[in-house]
Amino acid sequence: MSFFEIHESAPLSGQIRVHGSKNAVLPMMAAAILHRGITVLTNVPRILDVFWMIEILKTLGCQVCLEEDVLTIDTREMTNFVIPRHLAEKMRSSIICLGPLLGCFHRASLWHPGGCSIGSRPIDLHSEILTAMGALIVEEGEHLEVTAEKLSGCEFYFRFPSVGATENAIMCAVCAEGKTILKNVAREPEIRDLCRMLVAMGAKIDGIGTSHLIIEGGQSLHDTTIRIPSDRIVAATYLFATALCGGQIILLDAPIYDLKAVIAVLKQCGCQVQYRKGRLKLICSQRPYAIPYTKTEAYPGFPTDLQSLLMAVLCRADGISIIEETIFESRFQTALELQKMGADINIKGNQATIRGTAFLHGADVTATDLRGGAALVIAGIYAQGTTRVQAVEHIFRGYERLEEDLSALGADIVLRQ
Ligand code: UD1
Predict the structure, then answer these.
(1) Strand 70-74 to strand 63-67: parallel, antiparallel, or no bridges (unpaired)?
(2) How far is the centre of ligand 1, averaged over its atoms, from the C-alpha of 414 (Å)?
(3) 280 with 47: CB under 8 angstroms?
(4) So what's the pLDDT on residue 115?
(5) Is 210 exposed, middle or buried (0-12, 13-18, 19+ CB in 10 A)?
(6) What pLDDT does residue 277 have?
(7) Active site residue 195
(8) What is the pLDDT of residue 119?
(9) Helix pair angle (232-245, 307-314), 10° resolution
(10) The dihedral of CA 264, 195, 126, 42: what is its sign?
(11) If you ran DSSP here, which 8-state letter would residue 149 be given?
(12) Which of 90, 121, 296 to mutate to test the pocket of ligand 1 (most atoms within 8 A of CB)?
């Protein structure tokens, strides 16, 4: 089994480019199902989740070709509405094919999705909105058989602004007859990106970027070419790495306007942030300050995807910090691994209290999820001695070249087989 071997190598310095966004590209790939024709996506990250989504599209009968960072999806011969269990369970995002499959075939057969083990991941909100549009969902154990004689626009209020359920709702509404009004939808930048793609394909969507969307369904859709925006979570990973290890880095193509909550937290830690002409510079010249309280929230709040990375930074902070996790209940598993490196973290329910310590030491640790794995890697760069991070396949789900990028910033990290 491969693992990362990391030697203490702080501080970081250098310049890297941020690759395309995982959470943007996956729904956009699913959106290609909505129309018979050709969709071209550029700046596509070569990550495991994209490879699994390609497998799903091929199973449905699409011709899919990934050359460098250009993905071409040809749906003209698509015949199948069944996603087999082994693919559905590979990742959470398999569920966002449900809306497009219903839109295209009025039928879908799939299994409960898999994904990182960061907490229970129900699909009740997906079911509720699709049912409101006319779908009939028959669940037998983990299997879902979904049919819709007719899809009709509706008015729907989300009890919680689920990202995936919002994406399914939008994609289904684009094919439904009449107007759909979606209230309290997720406002993550990736929802905005999906809407922009659908509009470029011919859909009519008002309220893009807000929590209230109005979709006029039934427009005919056409071929399109879309560039995937940069990954805000990947950008933030390198910023947090520098906040922990010290140094000075420049990120090219960082989606600065989607990083407001992250930059606010980095400034609280004592980092200086400068932005000019597409170059985001972070300077961190002292031990990070503790942050009394941070809570993960739906966008525009501080993202749950960065909770473990912030925790790794605060392990070195001067003082006591508290993080409350409000989105995924099992996201504190990484704390147990950080403790093996000497971190002082106390977990009570959904709150972690972190007493910063000036030193961490290398250890053998295991990634339990994608972003938690990245947190262990940045802790390894700061820690004295050698750290080995096992189960790196979690990390490859969302980072195209984590070790290469960090090496370019001066980190001593190698992938061992
Ligand atoms: C997406 C992101 C993931 C991010 C998460 C929250 C992608 C591919 N993944 O995941 O990186 O961590 O948003 O920002 O974009 N929930 C329900 N019922 C549902 C659906 C969700 O109760 O039907 C709950 C979940 O258990 C969780 C919360 O809502 O507590 C957030 O989930 P959701 O926003 O749906 O996340 P994902 O779309 O799975």
Answers:
(1) antiparallel
(2) 32
(3) no
(4) 57
(5) exposed
(6) 87
(7) no
(8) 61
(9) 10
(10) negative
(11) S
(12) 121
CA angle 350, 354, 300 (to 5 degrees): 55
DSSP state for residue 73 in the 8-state scheme = E
Q: What is the pLDDT of residue 288?
A: 97
Please state, in angstroms and rounded to a whole number, the distance separating the CA atoms of residues 17 and 42.
15
Q: Which two tokens stand for residue 223?
A: 């071929």
Check residue 331 and give its pLDDT: 82
Q: How many angstroms separate the alpha carbon of residue 104 from the centre of ligand 1?
A: 24
Nearest Cα residue to atom 9 of ligand 1: 23
CA distance 254 to 14: 15
pLDDT in tens, 373-383: 999 999 999 99
Answer whether 215's CB lies under 8 Å from 203's CB: yes
d(CA 152, CA 134): 6
For residue 401, what are its two tokens?
């070249």
Q: Which of 15, 2, 147, 159 shows the shortest CA–CA distance to 81?
A: 147
Question: How high does pLDDT run on average in the chain?
Answer: 96
129 C-alpha to ligand 1 centroid (Å): 15
Name the helix (H) or strand (E) containing 63: strand 63-67
The residue-averaged pLDDT of 352-365 equals 97
Q: Using one digit for the tens of pLDDT, what is the confidence trace for 230-273?
A: 999 999 999 999 999 999 999 999 999 999 999 999 999 999 99
Distance, CA of 291 to CA of 270 (rounded, Å): 10
What is the token pair recorded at 57?
Answer: 């599209």
* Best CA proximity match to 265, nearest among 338, 314, 299, 232: 314
Give yes or no for residue 372 CB within 6 A of ligand 1. no
Identity of the amino acid at 360: L
* 132-143 pLDDT per residue, tens: 999 999 999 889
Average pLDDT over residues 404-417: 97
In the structure encoding, which two tokens stand for residue 261, read together? 């909550």
The DSSP result for 165-192, as a single string, is: HHHHHHHHHHHSBSEEEEES----HHHH
Q: Which pLDDT does position 91 carry in this prediction?
A: 85
The H or E element spanning position 182 is strand 179-183
Give the separation between CA 130 and CA 336, rounded to whole angstroms: 39
Nearest-CA neighbor of 136 among 125, 150, 124?
Answer: 150
CB 217 within 8 A of CB 178: yes
- Would you state the pLDDT for residue 122? 86
DSSP helix/strand/coil, 12: strand
* Residue-wise pLDDT tens digits, 279-335: 999 999 999 999 999 999 999 999 999 999 999 999 999 999 999 999 987 789 999
